[in-house]
Amino acid sequence: MKPIGETTVLITGASRGIGAAIAARFAREGYRIVIHYAKSHEQANEVARRCMSYGSEVMTISADLRSTEQLQRMKEKLEAEGFAPDILVNNAGTAYYGLFTDVTEADWDECLAINLKGAFLCSQLFAPYMIRQRYGRIINISSVWGISGASCEVMYSAAKGGVNAFTKALAKELAPSGITVNAVAPGAVDTDMIEHLDTEERHALQEEIPLGRLGTPEEVASLVYYLALPESGYVTGQVISPNGGWQA
C-alpha cells in the first residue's frame, strides 16, 4: 500500500454534488485527486481549486463514459501523468423521472449507459493496475432505489439495481487480488437531482424520512472515504444505504 500522498483517487462525475464532495473529502486527507467530468469544465476547475486549497495534487480530465475510445484515451493520459488510480469511485450518473409508459428506448439506453455501463468500463480499465499491485478500492455510487425500486423511476431503479449486482459479483472476483468493491446507495440527498421538487414536495419528502431531513453530499462522501481506507479491507461486496432510516 502506498503512502496517502502517493495514493490516487479517481472520481467520475466529480464536477458537482456528491462527486465534488467526495473529491474534497479525499483532498483534505492529502490524497492525489483526479476529477473526471463530461462537459462541466468550469465547475470541474472550481472543484479542483477547492481540492488544491487543501494542498492536494489535482488533475482534471474529461471523457464520455459511454465511449470506450474516450475512456481508453483518458486511461493513457492518466498513466502518462502518473495518476493511475488506486481508488476508483464510479460516481457519475443521471436520473430520469416519469411514467414507465413514456420511457423511450433512447432514454433507456442513455440511463443504463451512464449509470451502469460507465461503471463497468471504468472498472474494467483500471482494475488491471490494481491487480498488479495487489491492492485497490472500487466504490460505486448507487441509489436506495436500486434496492427498493421507485414508482416513476423504473429505468433509474433498474440501472442502479444493476450497479448493486455488479458490485457484489465483482467483489468476489477481485477479492483474491486484494481489491475491495462496495456500493454506497444514498437515499434523498440535497443535490440538484431533487431540484425538480417544489417546496411542498420537498417538505413532504423530509417528513417521510425518520431523521426528518435530507442527507448531505458530505455525509455520503464520509462513507465513501471510510470504504476506501486500508482499515476497511474486510468490507467488500456490500451495498450500504445512508438514507436517514427512510428505507431501513
TrEMBL record:
<dbReference type="InterPro" id="IPR036291">
    <property type="entry name" value="NAD(P)-bd_dom_sf"/>
</dbReference>
<dbReference type="Pfam" id="PF13561">
    <property type="entry name" value="adh_short_C2"/>
</dbReference>
<keyword id="KW-0560">Oxidoreductase</keyword>
<dbReference type="InterPro" id="IPR002347">
    <property type="entry name" value="SDR_fam"/>
</dbReference>
<dbReference type="GO" id="GO:0032787">
    <property type="term" value="P:monocarboxylic acid metabolic process"/>
</dbReference>
<dbReference type="InterPro" id="IPR050259">
    <property type="entry name" value="SDR"/>
</dbReference>
<comment type="similarity">
    <text>Belongs to the short-chain dehydrogenases/reductases (SDR) family.</text>
</comment>
<dbReference type="GO" id="GO:0016491">
    <property type="term" value="F:oxidoreductase activity"/>
</dbReference>
<protein>
    <submittedName>
        <fullName>3-oxoacyl-[acyl-carrier protein] reductase</fullName>
    </submittedName>
</protein>
<dbReference type="InterPro" id="IPR020904">
    <property type="entry name" value="Sc_DH/Rdtase_CS"/>
</dbReference>
